[in-house]
Amino acid sequence: MTTTVFNSTPNSSQQATRSKRAPRKNPHSFEFYVDDFLGGTVHLSPQAVGAYVRLLCFQFNQGSIPDEPAVLARVCGCSVDEWGRLWAELENKFPKDADGKRRNERLASEKSHKLQVRKSCTDAALARWTKEQEDPPPDPIPKSHTDESTNKPTRRAAMPMPETVAEVENWCSAHNVRIDSAQFFNYYASQGWKKANGKQVTDWHACARGWESRQIETAKTKSQSGLFEVQRQQLSEAAFREVFGE
């Protein structure tokens, strides 16, 4: 089934005026089922079809159409005499309800469903908002680590640097970090406790562990280079004996 939407969205000047008012209680549009409409109006005259569409729009906005020929003729843009002929074709489309007003049953049902859906969405949004107000989400950054003036995370304060080689040795011994404490201390002290990239050291414990890792990698590289050199010499000696004999 093909569906089109009749939209009663106002023009720009009307929108500017309406934006100052309270939100509309009625929806702005309704679904227009093309196949059903064609099947239900194929027997109507072209003038009656146009009047039928205008009456549907009037009912959607007002909730019903009045049982007054003069008013309905004005809504459809025709004379009262001409309206009598059109109403003979359209009267069964708008049966009279108990309140004395006429309504198209299909359109009334569609509008009621649309209002229920909108109310459900509004209630769900209100429930989410109420829950957020009662139980707000936690701050992503603890306030103790936030600069109140800029609301940005503050940097962790740098730890004090060691003043003696003994201080480095004691810490390395306690944490099983195997480095030459004197070499480590003398290097960084001579650099003003700055890294190779010029940035200030804020955690010399991490620097010590990095120093140890680099020493281990250097030792591995030297060991492999020494093994390759021994193998090269052995191959050279073997080649010499093969050519000249022992």
Structure description:
By secondary structure, the chain is mainly alpha-helical. The protein has 2 domains: 132 residues, Orthogonal Bundle (Arc Repressor Mutant, subunit A); 80 residues, no CATH class. The protein has 9 helices and 4 strands. The chain has a two-stranded antiparallel sheet with strand order 1-2. It has a two-stranded antiparallel ribbon with strand order 3-4. A hairpin with a 4-residue loop joins strand 3 and strand 4. The protein is elongated. The chain starts with a strand and ends with a helix. The N terminus is likely disordered.
Overall structural class, as computed from helix and strand content, comes to: mainly alpha
- For this structure, the CATH topology of the largest domain is Arc Repressor Mutant, subunit A
Portion in strands: 5-15%
Helix amount: 55-70%
Give the count of helical stretches. Answer: 9
Poorly predicted ranges (pLDDT <50, ≥5 residues)? 1-5
Mind describing the biggest β-sheet? Answer: 2 strands, antiparallel
Q: How many strands in all?
A: 4
The overall number of domains is 2
The gyration radius over C-alpha positions equals 44 Å
Please state the second-level CATH architecture of the largest domain. Orthogonal Bundle
Please tell me the overall pLDDT: 79
